[in-house]
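Lecture notes, unit on binding sites. The following record was shown on slide 14. It pairs a sequence with S-adenosyl-L-homocysteine.
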Amino acid sequence: MPPTLQETSPAAPSKVFIKTYGCQMNVYDSERMGEVLSERGYVTTQAVEEADLVILNTCHIREKAAEKVYSELGRLRRLKSRGGRDMKIAVAGCVAQAEGEEIVRRAPVVDLVFGPQTYHRLPDLLDRHGETGAAVIETELPVDEKFEILDAPATKPVRRGVAAFLTVQEGCDKFCTFCVVPYTRGAEFSRPADRILAEARKLVDAGVREITLLGQNVNAWHGDGLAGHDWTLGHLLNALSDIDGLERLRYTTSHPRDMDNELITAHGVNPKLMPYLHLPVQSGSDRILKAMNRKHTAAEYIELVGRIRDARPDIAMSSDFIVGFPGETDADFAATMDLVRQVTYAQAFSFKYSPRPGTPASTEASQVPEEVKTARLAELQALLGEQQASFNEACKGRVLDVLLEKPGRQEGQLIGRSPYLQSVFINAGDHAIGDTVKVAIETVGPNSLTGHMVEA
Ligand code: SAH
Ligand code: SF4
Ligand code: F3S
């Protein structure tokens, strides 16, 4: 029997508060940091004031995202001096990787800086800090070591919700000219299939019903299959769907270049694979796509979406867009609007281009003025908003399978997800979180649906 918490540490357990910025991979990493620390007797807290250790798990993708970290560090500094407490402050994630020591120079309140590939060393980093009291900075990129260590079975059970993330691939070798990810996350790395299957089984045993496979380039995942074959993501999804008790699979984020036939076919034949695909295109102009180093044309993307829809006609398409990339003209932007009209999206994320230090596009002379970016973003978002509204509108009157995930604000209300990733509000009757129920959709809003349960 493992010792209980009381046996190992008679004092109250240390508390850690983790704040997560950025993408779902950071959400996954924050959960794993919590696990690593729980092995050390830490418990997580939602109240920053009572934390002994505060971790900001940061994002460097756009300037705004990175700057948020420094304003939060200012707040923490005031909190720490007001309370006079010995609160340790750590900066993790992509800003940590990109800025390293610079963070401690700008914000001396910081005790630990560690990148996305070294958080498994957290106990050791805390010890090192404890010995000298000096700031500890760890920004190597040993991704395979991280997963080796994280794959060791947890000695304490970890509570999970109904839907969980599972990182299968990390890093990126694509070097789009606007993007920091290849520098903050390092080279592309795929976790072995057997480890992924084992982690998925563990999640399902802990009550998880839906797993979203994560990777900066998730569909570039590849590995040794179980029967001596090389696997790509389509194979892996099919193997995962054999797990009893697992009801739904998703994956994100995909690059158009890595959408192979195996994966497209899986959308047609694998009933657990949900009909939703986030497939960022960034721009509809071939000139800009080339300057971005995306390595496909607008026509190739549209043709690809056509093949995906042939396999799964009702699939909800999603994308990311950047407006105001250096050199983007009115004609280039018009090409993006045209592409959106041709594809039609159920959901999308769009951003003004933000020059990032160290990326090739940031030093281009032809930067687009801020007011032009603002106007283009508004125009694009209006069109994407209309498309999202009509996708939702078309669900009215349909009966959708909804996986119930969490309680709503009102008494008896539960919130779940449709196959198309829409939030659905229902009065749940006897049904409980973790059930999948059939819901007749009655009303639709821009971001959610409501309905009532019908017999299966
Ligand atoms: N791996 C994914 C994207 C990861 S970053 C892909 O290849 O599509 C998430 C999104 O942030 C990107 O799709 C892009 O739209 C946006 N983004 C990345 N760098 C940006 C920058 N410098 N300025 C504005 N948006 C950016
Ligand atoms: Fe960034 Fe491009 Fe890699 Fe996506 S594919 S993470 S946008 S470099
Ligand atoms: Fe941000 Fe790093 Fe994710 S830069 S988007 S947290 S990979």
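Take-home: Residues 172, 174-176, 179, 181-182, 216-217, 255 surround iron/sulfur cluster (ligand 2) (CB under 6 Å).
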